[in-house]
Amino acid sequence: MPIVSIVLLEGRNQAQKDAMYAEVTQALCRTLGCPPEQVRIMVQDYALGNFAVAGTSVATAREQAARKKEEAS
Predict the structure, then answer these.
(1) Ramachandran angles phi, psi of 29, nearest 5°
(2) Alpha helices in the chain, H assignment, sequence order
(3) Cα 22 to chain center, whole Å?
(4) Using an 8 Å Cβ cutoff, are 51 and 40 in contact?
């Protein structure tokens, strides 16, 4: 039984996640030869403020980028 854990940053809607579930399930069944009923997928959605790159949260980095874009306009 394949068990897959996927970590995402928030912002995807349910339709996008449902499409991802279907695609991942198909890929696992094709490559591992298992039936879809055996596939388990767990998704963790992280808030942008709870994920950081190089010491800056993604939320802050996006805010800074938006301010720079406004200032450049």
Answers:
(1) -65, -40
(2) 14-32, 58-72
(3) 14
(4) no
CB atoms within 10 A of CB 25: 20
Tokens of 49: 């403020």
Catalytic positions are 2
Do 70 and 28 touch, CB atoms closer than 8 A?
A: no
Q: What angle do CA 6, 4, 23 make, to 5 degrees?
A: 80
User: Which helix (DSSP H) or strand (DSSP E) does residue 36 occupy?
Assistant: none
What does the radius of gyration of the chain's CA atoms come to, in whole angstroms?
Answer: 17
> Are the CB atoms for 27 and 44 separated by under 8 Å?
no
Which residues 6+ apart lie within 8 Å of 24 measured at CB?
Answer: 4, 6, 39, 41
pLDDT, tens only, 43-71? 999 999 999 999 999 999 999 999 999 99
pTM comes to 0.82
